[in-house]
Amino acid sequence: MTRAAGLGLTAEPSSIQFEVRDGIRRVTCTVSEEALDAVSGLAGPSSTALRRRSFDRFRGLIDAAAKLKLKTLAPGWVGPLMLSSGDLRSVPPVSGVPAFGSSPRGG
Length: 107
Description:
This protein is α+β, with helices and mostly antiparallel strands. It has helices at 33-40, 48-57, 59-71, 85-89, and strands spanning 2-4, 8-10, 16-22, 25-31, 81-83. The chain has one domain (14-89): Double Stranded RNA Binding Domain. The termini are far apart.
C-alpha cells in the first residue's frame, strides 16, 4: 500500500478498486491480486486481463465479502477496505453466486 497526501492508504497498482454501499455512504474497497488469483484458481501471477475477468465473474462474492468485513469494523471507520482471499473464503454460499475457487467451466 502507498500513502497519498491526506487520503490515507491507496490501493496497490495490481489490485482492483470498487465501491459498496454502507447505509447512505459509499465505501471504497480494493481486492488484492492474490485474492483474485485464488478465487478463480489462477496460478499467480496472472495477467491484468485475467484478474479483471475474475473480478467481474466473482463480483457478487466480492461485494458480499466487503459488506461482511464492514460489519466487523468500528462505526465511523474510514476506508479504503482491503479484501484478501481469506475475506472471500469467509462468505457463506449464496445461490447464484460462484463459489470461491470454482472454475469458469463445470467440467
